[in-house]
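#structure-requests
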Amino acid sequence: MISFSFLQSWWAGAVGFGGSLVCLGLFYAMEQIYLNGEEMLDTSFEYSALEAKARFQTYGEVGRHVYALASLTVDVAFPLFYGLLSFYWVNMVSKSISIWKQGVYFPFAIAQLVLTVLVMLLDVLENILLVRLLVGFPNITDQQIETASSLTKLKWYTARGIGITSSISFVFLALKLIVYKRAKEL
């Protein structure tokens, strides 16, 4: 079992970063080898039913099955890795700028944690819907595709929120370091 202390160690950042890179590499290899060079559907911000069906046709039967398998394995591990990296980042920044003390939580850190958990859940739900589409093709409806596309769009909006809160956290960290450096010079 992973303890909270693990999330505070540099190992959490290393495992999160390294695991994310491995997953991204596996996704790229899968696209090149099994999906005939086409991108995975869930990497698009949104997609139409026509576009999804055209991609599924291009993937071919083997490509669709490999994509479905990857969605249930690698693309379930991926949110865990990037979630771990995000939790580590929040902890590191919070400790660095002394805002994570005695129950007083920095609002951007809390927002980033909530958004991270939300995007992880959305990613897994999206995977479930995509597996149903990939396995069910060609007997899938436009409504099923539109539902999956809406979930994909919501995931990407949420991921942008993480990017915004991470950027704000980075600015606060940079300001803290500048103030600390100036204080040492005085």
